[in-house]
Amino acid sequence: MNEIRLSVSMPLDSEGFLRRRCQSCSREFKWLHTPDGSANAVAPPPGGYYCPYCGIQSHEWMTDAQSALVNETVQREAVQIAQRQLNQAMKDAVRGSKFLSYKESPGKPMPEPHPLSEDDDMKRIDFQCHPTEPIKIEESWSGSLYCLICSAEITV
Q: Residue ranges of the domains in the chain?
């Protein structure tokens, strides 16, 4: 079986923060995007990052809009692959036949997924325990927060 890899870009705010959503409490926050392999990259804890609001650990952090963009991108690619395979199968089926012919139809292309944008909202919070892993939280939030990496609790 052939492997297909797709790349989907997610927008960052002007300071390089990526919007995330906790699947447990449904609150959105942002974490500083660090490219894989960067010297500043901190490996996620074995169970995943911690939500800064509820402290629940997870590996799933996409917002609804991000999930929709990924799904649209995968669907678009799947349809294009299926169209190419169908055209090739039909060409192969009629090859050498005196009575059958096949004219390839490009099909109607699916529209490109609508790109996301990112607002410069939320307030920045830095943790002493992991100073290279700041977050941004809702402007109106007050109370406890948890570090993404070690779940250390602070009060804002």
A: 11-69+113-156
